[in-house]
Every structure is written in C-alpha cells, then in structure tokens.
Design goal:
The radius of gyration is 26 Å and the shape is elongated. Strand 7 (154-160) and strand 8 form a beta hairpin. It is built from four helices and 14 strands. The strands form five sheets. The protein has a four-stranded antiparallel β-sheet with strand order 1-14-3-9, with no helix packed on it. The protein has helices at residues 2-9, 21-33, 38-53, 58-73, and strands at residues 85-88, 96-101, 106-111, 117-118, 131-135, 150-151, 154-160, 165-169, 173-177, 182-188, 197-198, 200-201, 204-205, 209-214. It has 216 residues and is an alpha+beta fold. Helix 2 packs parallel to helix 4 and helix 3 (38-53) packs antiparallel against helix 4 (58-73).
Length: 216
C-alpha cells in the first residue's frame, strides 16, 4: 500500500500528479516506522485524490501530505540520552549545555567537588554545592522554592516539549528523571553574572567540570 501511494506521489501514474521528492521521501520514511498509521493515511489520501479528480486544486492535496509527518510523529522523541557529555561550567552566564531527553530518561549529573568559585566580589569561595549559609528564597534566584536550593549551587532546568519548566537543585551529584520529552539545561543559582570568578593561584585557575550521563 505504501509503495502504491509513493508511486502516485512521485508521478508514477502519469496523471499529472507529482509532489516534491524530499517531502515524499520524508513521508515514506515516517510511514515505514508507523505501520499502524498506513491505513488511515491511505484513506485520507484517497479522499484528497477524489477531490482533485473533481477539480479541486492539487495544492490542497500537497498541503495535506506535507503536514502528515509532523502529525504522525507528534510526541515522539528522536534524541534519547544515550551518551555522556563532559564540559566545564560557565559561571559567567545563564542556562547552558542544552541536552535533549526522552520521557523516563534518567540523567546522572555530577560536578567536581574541589573546584571553587565565588558569586560576589567579597563572598566566600564555594563549590557546586553552593553556599550553605544562603538559602536562596529570594525569587530573583532561578532555584528558590525548594529547601535544598542554595546560592551559587549547580542547578538544572528541564523544559518539556510542551513548554513546562522545572528547575531543581543539583549540587555536586544528583539523578534527574525526565517526566516528559524535553531539554535539560544547567547553570549556577545566581542572577548577577558579572562578578563571578573562579579561584586562582598564580597560573592555575579552578574550573568546575560537569558530567552528564545516562543513569544506571
């Protein structure tokens, strides 16, 4: 059935119908991965074909086909967390290192515990665990409505594919489970970036490294 429709869409019937080959290839790829959808697509395609035969514009048929891949793959996740990402934490900017995750993926996120930085000019040197003396209840902090949120702490933000945002404390080590398909970001729990500094002795400067990997 798929082969017959693809032949028709590609101009194989010599009936004046021929659609964009890239669109046809994409649609064929989706249908091969969604066998349960083939019957419904075939019925819809027949309706479009009959409307065209009665004098309807071919563009309506093409618009129908062009919209199908997005409709058939809605809610699918094509980039699960199956790899390990390592990078250094940028303490001078906000949300960083976007990582796609699929629903129920579990991410093990951990940072080096000895590298130090400060988030104010005269503040204490802290690590990814944050400053235990400052619980970040001020709404200016991204992470402020959790009793385990501290100033300067490594934190995470997960934005679902539907736009729902979840902000959570990470600290030195945590595991996060994705409740929906979406994207994970990390940052430090701060709202002013200009005065953040890594600890430095002579020519050696600390750098907090962060590793994100699939949780076992």
């Amino acid at each position: 059935m798929v082969e017959a429709m693809q032949s028709q869409w590609s101009g194989g019937r010599d009936d004046g119908v021929s659609f964009d080959e890239i669109m046809v290839a994409r649609l064929n790829e989706v249908l091969m991965s969604k066998p349960t959808a083939v019957e419904a697509v075939a019925a819809g395609n027949l309706e479009q074909c009959m409307a065209f035969r009665k004098g309807g514009p071919v563009s309506v048929w093409e618009d129908y086909l062009r919209a199908l891949p997005a409709q058939l793959t809605e809610g699918d996740c094509t980039k699960p967390l199956t790899y390990t990402l390592f990078n250094y934490l940028d303490i001078g900017s906000g949300w960083q290192q976007p990582i796609p995750m699929c629903k129920e993926n579990r991410a093990h996120i951990f940072a080096t515990a000895s590298d130090k930085y400060r988030i104010t000019d005269n503040g204490p040197w802290i690590t990814a665990a944050g400053d235990p003396a400052i619980r970040s209840i001020d709404p200016q902090y991204p992470c402020h409505d959790n009793e385990n949120c501290f100033a300067g702490q490594l934190i995470g933000r997960f934005e679902t594919s539907k736009g729902v945002e979840i902000i959570f404390p990470i600290g030195v080590d945590t595991v996060f489970r994705a409740p929906e398909n979406g994207t994970l970001y990390i940052s430090i729990n701060d709202y002013n970036w200009f005065d953040n500094r890594y600890f430095k002795t002579v020519a050696i400067e600390d750098r907090t490294s962060v590793t994100i990997e699939p949780a076992q």
